[in-house]
Amino acid sequence: MTSAAHHYHLERLTNVHSKLLDRDTEVDIYLPFQFEQSETPFPLLLLNDGQDGKEITLQETLEEVTRAHTIRDTIVVAVHAGDRMQEYGVAGKPDFKKRGSRARDYSRFIMTELLPYIEYRYSVSTKTEDHAIAGFSLGGLSALDIAWHHADYFGKVGAFSGSFWWRRRDTKSRLYSDHRDRIMHLTVRNGRYKPGLKFWFQTGLLDEQADRNKNGVIDSIDDTLDLIVELTKKGYRPFHDIQYLELEKGEHNLKTWKEAMPHFLQWAFGK
Fold this sequence. Notes:
- The chain is α/β, with parallel strands linked by helices.
- The chain has a single domain, classed as Alpha/Beta hydrolase fold, catalytic domain (Rossmann fold), CATH 3.40.50.
- The chain has eight helices and eight strands.
- The protein has an eight-stranded mixed beta sheet, with helices on both faces.
- α1 runs parallel beside α8 (254-269) and α6 (183-190) runs parallel beside α7 (219-234).
- It starts with 7 loop residues before the first strand and ends with a helix.
């Protein structure tokens, strides 16, 4: 049984209109016990695909790791997805099917509409290292893109089975190349080193079956490991700035991401 001291309170913001997204938004906010009485501001996790919070038992997981004294009390802002295929992606760089066309709007919504409201209403730490963003699949791609372009605000980013296959050209094209066409890899390669930014990646051996280069490694793992290589070329250090979790029985589903969540929370907010 969870004691009161380890209980998280869930507040839901509904029908909050976003001018940038031109739609109403819904956000779940998980708050530590007696957050209003605390004199110390809290770390912040912004989570894409917040509508999946119940299925991944996010509140119970937060209470479990808090009860085990493995993480600090943390405010979690879980944003329900709208049009995932258009609002998630890499800002200003739609894929070859024109998906991700509203990723820039979503990023601006997070940074200029949602976060200022959260900081106004709740006691959030002002330290960059206390701010993390994460997501699943396309939400993981979105999280990394937002953190990469706003490293002055986010100090940590987590991608659960991130959709790093996101590409400029169809793999069926004779002109396709992993090196030239994977959008997030290009974004990192053409970007600059962001001091202090730390990365957490998770994949599963059963994430998918596709192996486009026939090297015996599924694409989701290849794409993630290749992205880690790009980050190391920028100066980020594996095991220090970059953590990688590979689950032997991990699949591309909420059950796996639920299993991985405590690992991420302890990495991002561990005592």
